[in-house]
Amino acid sequence: MARVDVRRVLVTVAAPALALVFALAIASLALRASGHSPVDTARAMVTYARQGSTQVLILNTATYYYLAAVAVAIGFRMNLFNIGVDGQYRLAALLSAAVGGAVHLPRPLHLLLIVVVAVTVGGMWAAIAGVLKAYRGVSEVISTIMLNAISTAVIAYLLTPGRLAVSTQGSNNIGTRPIPVSGQVPGLDLIPGANRQVFGFIIVSALVGIGYAVLLNRTRFGFDLRATGRSQSAAVASGVNVKRMVVISMALSGACAGLVGLPQLLGASYSYALDFPTGIGFTGIAIALLGRNHPVGIALGALLWSFLDQSSQILDLEGVPKEIVTIMQGSTVLSVVVAYELVRRYSQVLEQKRVGVALGQTTGVTA
Amino acid sequence: MTSEPPAGPGPVAVRLTGITKRFPGVVANHDVNISVRAGSVHAVVGENGAGKSTLMKILYGMQRPDEGTIAIDGAVVTLGTPAQAIAAGIGMVHQHFMLADNLTVLENVVLGSEPRKGLRLDFGAARARIDEISQAYGLGVRPDALVEDLGVGERQRVEILKVLYRGARVLILDEPTAVLVPQEVRDLFRAVRELTGRGFTVLFISHHLDEVLEIADEITVIRRGETVATVRPADVTAGELAELMVGSELPSPQTRESTVTDRVVLEATDLTVRDADGRLLLDHVSLRIHSGEIVGIAGVEGNGQTQLVEAIMGMEPLSEGTLTLSGEDVTAWGTRRRREAGVAFVPEDRNRHGLLLEAPLWENRVLGHQTQAPNRKGPWIDRAGARADTERIVREYDVRTPGIDVTAGSLSGGNQQKLIVGREMSGSPRLLLAAHPTRGVDVGAQAAIWDHIRDARAAGLAVLLVSSDLDELIGLSDSLKVMLRGRLVADADPATVTPEQLGSAMTGATGAAGAASSAGAA
Fold first, then answer.
1. Residue in chain B nearest A231 by alpha carbon
2. Are B57 and B64 in contact (CB under 8 A)?
3. What is the DSSP string of A304-364?
4. Checking CA distances to B497, which of A233, A336, B203, B434 falls within 20 to 30 Å?
5. Residues of A in contact with B332 (CB under 8 A)
6. Residue A128 — pLDDT band, cuts 50, 70, 90?
7. Would the CB atoms of B413 and A367 count as touching at under 8 Å?
8. Nearest C-alpha in A relative to B337
9. Could you tell me which chain B residue has the CA closest to the CA of A350?
């Protein structure tokens, strides 16, 4: 029996590994077709990633990628497609930056206030889609996409001088009033010899991952959520109030999304300005798929993604178009999704066989 | 069992020989043989899950048989896709209509086989053909009406027309009367007679036995995936047909002395459920179950039993009526609260309502009892408690599995059922709603499940038992009620009633309902 379990673990690990090999092959083909050497390109990327300051950048990017992917994964576990993480985190970042820049409080309180504002805004913004789905039957895919557009408009409206924005001296950029030191999160010297610091918020990311794992696997609420995702009809029969679950899990996903902007906001820019990073929510969808909604898988996916993002910076200097990384990311997600489905079916058959063998009957029995 | 086709006028239009179809864990069809004469109505009857739909899917090219052959007009054909079946002259009218509401009848009919004139659609020719077919068979279909404006009966005739338009000579009607009111049923039957009069062949799937007896020229009964008999309506009664459907070779589940007390556990008053269109699915049903009493509901499937059970479970919204549990009004309670109050539920569709197929057995033990011991510790799931109790269920209910970490989907149907029954009997429930508790379970396990239910009854459990197995109903129940078209139409005493009498009452044959003692007709 232990042998079979080993085989199952191998099968599970084999899926992403094979998918990566496949994606590498496609990227190599694309490189060759454009007249570059895949080996040299890979070497350049790895060499660049060996540098301490690159590693810091990789960790920092992964910090918010991870939060975005967990936000998406919470929805996925319930068969909800939260495409609105992008709008949720941007709106949350703007409002929490505005609140954080407007008050002066002692450090732990100041930080806490900013985080609470971000989480609340993200959660409530996502809950709109949840309520629409539960009580009006609106597909959350449609409503979250539209809420993204709405939040872009709301941010553009609010981020003007006289409302939430002040002009930055010496540039034509505008942003919220900078958050004072008491609201900032100091960096960590995790990588020796690097000239940069890792976002202190990486600790929060890790805690969110642990919280996600515990909530889903150990609590009654998590059980209800997973049951609803696996079979809504069975969940209803078991007493789950599916409408309520839709609203709560959407809000939870949005609350987690609300954290996505904070590593950058509290660790580097201290103000929500016109150049605040966008699009992290969509990357989060890809990483959640890549990591199979598993807390550890998502972490690996986030690291891989940000490694590709960061090390692609060197490619321009090497004369290689850095779009090759986009090709690689895209083919990885596609092949991973296909590979996971194949593995899922294969392990189902494997288990049915195993049950059959254990009971000494390999073929079906007439009822 | 009549193996030779009864001598009749027409030649054989469809001959199914030795059809066998296996799915993982079950054989849906086993050595099925049916001969359908051209120009006749051939009914196929059987319980839900007996294998009727699988058989029709095979004939319509949606499933491939593992063994056996299909011959159309004497020539053996291979039907791998519905397109091939259509080409062979077979058409199917599905139980759930496949029509686009926002298109006209004409557009719906030509959809997928649009007549072309060069690059343009030639609606003129299509309209002429539709009118011609409609008039020839008295279908009364207007080509330019919008489908969303049509009633159910008209929509069904559009479906029939669609099939005829594609040149079908053999029509499969899957449960065609399930959605119709009596007047519409008469119209349908008239159209069917018109069709067979002109040489069309109709395969009629139903479990409304009175209708089958009225329309069919021949009837094939399927039980547990096998053809058990082919009979002519003149030679059988509804009761005999029901008996053929459910069989009576099973060990009889005799309940010994009565344990009925005078404590009312469940009191339902005027339970009424309507579907989205306002049609009555459950029509002012009132019943009372005492502690220690098993109340059996007899009825042909699809007559409101599902809605009754789901309404008591809190899964189906009531449009009228009240429910009390041990004197407490629970009408406004959700499913979880009812479960916590001691209502247990063995669903009729275990894959949809009873199990998380991709989750391990121990998580399935938690399902439905998330808030109850031994699965819970405050806000946490008590894994150790749930696992230990799953081991107990596996032991006591003889669930054949290598362990409790395998997924529920990898167990056979019978073992899944034993797990569900074991789970629902845990935590000493007050009321058990059992829909087909022994369906798909082998004879030994069936007896064991009956014993468990009887023991719990002796300990004071109130049970609502819905079953299509008449022997099970008669053997286990302390009192029996017959359900027909959403209403409780008759009471029967399990001590004196016979399966034949019950079968007749289930089909609404009026005389027989009296025989089943209609003392408390609703």
1. B356
2. no
3. HHHHHHHHTHHHHHHT--THHHHHHHHHHHHHHHHHHHHHHHHHHHHHHHHHHHHTT--S-
4. B434
5. none
6. very high
7. yes
8. A239
9. B410
For residue B286, the surrounding DSSP H or E stretch is strand B280-290
Cross-chain residue pair B367–A234, CB shorter than 8 Å: yes
* Inter-helix orientation angle B499-506/B238-246, to 10°: 110
> In chain A, count of helices (H) and strands (E)?
15, 2
Distance from the B439 Cα atom to the nearest Cα atom in chain A, whole angstroms: 9
Q: Is A234–B23 a contact, with Cβ atoms under 8 angstroms apart?
A: no
Residues 6+ apart with CB under 8 A from B357: A230, A231, B351, B407, B408, B409
What's the token pair of residue A340?
């996971």
Distance from CA of A112 to the nearest CA of B (A): 25
Shortest CB distance from A355 goes to which of B22, B355, B402? B402
The whole-angstrom separation of Cα B347 and Cα B306 is 9
The conformation of residue B235, written as its DSSP 8-state character, comes to: G
| CA of A114 vs chain B CAs: smallest distance (Å) | 28
User: Which chain B residue has the Cα nearest residue A362?
Assistant: B25
- A355 contacts in B (CB within 8 Å)? 401-402, 406, 410-411
**Contacts A–B by Cβ distance under 8 A:** 125
d(CA B148, CA B142): 13
- Among residues B368, B371, B404, the alpha carbon closest in space to that of B387 is found at B404
pLDDT along chain B (522 residues), means of 10: 47 89 69 91 80 85 88 89 89 83 87 75 84 85 85 85 89 81 80 89 83 90 85 86 68 65 92 87 93 91 88 92 93 93 92 91 93 87 93 89 86 84 91 87 75 89 89 88 90 84 74 41 35
Dist CA B424 CA B432 (whole Å): 8
Contact B489, B285 (CB under 8 A): no
Strands A165-167 and A174-176: antiparallel
The answer to whether the Cβ–Cβ distance between A364 and B337 falls below 8 Å is no
Q: Which residue has the tokens 């409609």?
A: B134
A130 and A249 Cβ atoms separated by less than 8 Å: yes
Nearest CB among A234, A354, A367 relative to B402 is that of: A354
How many CB atoms are closer than 10 A to CB A124?
16
Amino acid in position B98:
M
Lowest mean per-residue pLDDT among A55-69, A214-228, B38-52, B216-230: B38-52
Q: Is the pTM for the entire model greater than 0.90? A: no
Nearest to B279 by CA among B156, B211, B183, B179: B179
Please name the member of A226, A239, A352 whose beta carbon is closest to the beta carbon of B334: A239
Distance from CA of A258 to the nearest CA of B (A): 25
CA dihedral sign of residues B506, B508, B511, B513:
positive
Q: Report the Cα A39 to chain-centroid distance in Å.
A: 30
Spacing of C-alpha B91 from chain mean position? 23
- Using a CB-CB distance cutoff of 8 angstroms, which residues of chain B are in contact with residue A219? 379-381
Complex ipTM: 0.84
Residue type, A176: T
SS3 B119: coil
Strand order in B12-23's β-sheet? B26-37, B12-23, B67-72, B75-77
Cβ atoms < 10 Å from Cβ of B185: 17
Residue B520, min C-alpha distance to chain A (Å): 31
CA distance B206 to B215: 11
Cα gap A257→A80, rounded to integer Å: 14
Give the residue from B474, B486, B484, B479 showing the smallest Cα distance to B507.
Answer: B484
Contact present, B353 and B339 (Cβ < 8 Å): no
Distance in angstroms between the alpha carbons of the first and the last residue of chain A: 28
